[in-house]
Design a protein that fits this description.
With about 325 residues, the protein is α/β, with parallel strands linked by helices. About 35% of the residues lie in helices and about 25% in strands. α7 (about 235-250) links the parallel β11 and β12 (about 260).
């Protein structure tokens, strides 16, 4: 691997996607990407007793399907990189403990898919691991209970609010021929514009997305026109428009080559999701279904995938702190 510019690492050994899987809930299955997902459940509890245990099962199921598609077993995996939105990432630790794979727990909020995949690719490219797994998840009910109000409270959602995706996405990475591969990773830095509204995640994350993307272009000497499409994670309607404004101030226009996972996983006109979708499972489930399907079919050959996260906690919100944002970017290719 080699360092490119300030933040970007370009891989030389093509850490490839050997298998991938997406598992979602009922509302996600009813959206525009219905046929893209590997598995869905109509039961919010996923056969478990709590929403938190249901989220763990989302991850476990996604990893199992991804391993099956990669034709690998748990014993073939050297490390698993995972995280979620729950306290101390219990969705991941409880969901993955039975696999017996060395576990590297991460917290990047909704940016965790790009964060985990970027680190997993680093291990494969360097030779530190032959096979790795990157996985993350979120659950609408567990997230609402932790960050906002219990569901039975019946609170009104503001127009800027986003719907946390119930879903999980898992990638199995290793060295392989003819597969989509992660060409580079750009790890972002924290951006804080003083947003304090916990019901406006898009505004909190947009500055970080703009910052990471601009640094990537600077590091690599490329621009939006060099890529088939640029996917952001879960900026939603509000965050997407703010991203455009911030980039245009730097004389960068991505409107014709941009799509946001938070705007394509649901139908905002038919499904009551307000400003769109959010959650770790948003970009993860879209990447591990729709996006990789399009790459394998040849619709895309060179894309940017950037998950965005709001680094808040219930404690920081109750204390009136602002919401820092983060964004990590992957350049994914297929020859």
């Amino acid at each position: 691997m080699k360092k490119c510019g300030k933040r970007t690492i370009i891989f030389e050994n093509r850490p490839s996607v050997l298998g991938y899987a997406s598992v979602v809930g009922k509302k996600e299955h009813e959206g525009p990407l219905s046929e893209e997902f590997d598995f869905y459940t109509e039961d919010s509890f996923f056969g478990e007793k709590t929403f938190e245990k249901a989220e763990s099962k989302l991850q476990k199921t996604a990893v199992k399907i991804a391993l099956e598609k990669a034709r690998l077993d748990e014993k073939d995996i050297d490390n698993i990189f995972a995280g979620d939105l729950l306290n101390q990432c219990i969705g991941s630790s409880f969901g993955l403990k039975e696999f017996g794979i060395p576990f590297i727990g991460l917290y990047g909020a909704c940016s965790t898919m790009s964060l985990s995949a970027g680190l997993a690719a680093l291990f494969v490219d360097s030779g530190a691991a032959a096979h790795t797994v990157a996985v993350t998840s979120s659950h609408f009910c567990s997230a609402e209970r932790q960050y906002r109000f219990p569901l039975n409270y019946g609170s009104q959602r503001t127009p800027t609010a986003q719907w946390t995706v119930t879903g999980s996405g898992a990638l199995v990475l290793g060295k392989g021929e003819g597969k989509p591969y992660i060409n580079s990773v750009t790890f972002g830095e924290i951006a804080d514009y003083g947003i304090k509204d916990t019901n406006n995640m898009g505004a909190a994350m947009a500055p970080a997305a703009a910052d990471t993307l601009l640094h990537f272009f600077s590091d690599t000497g490329t621009k939006a026109e060099n890529y088939d499409i640029i996917f952001t994670g879960d900026l939603g309607y509000v965050g997407t428009n703010l991203l455009y404004e911030l980039l245009e101030k730097e004389k960068t226009d991505i409107r014709c080559r941009h799509s946001d996972c938070g705007l394509i996983i649901f139908d905002r006109e038919k499904q009551d999701v307000h400003a769109g979708a959010s959650g770790c499972g948003c970009s993860a489930s879209v990447l591990c279904s729709y996006i990789l399907h399009r790459i394998e079919k040849g619709d895309f050959k060179n894309i940017l995938f950037m998950s965005t996260g709001a680094l808040l906690s219930p404690t920081s919100s109750f204390q009136g702190s602002s919401i820092p944002g983060i964004a990590h970017l992957l350049n994914i290719k297929k020859d």
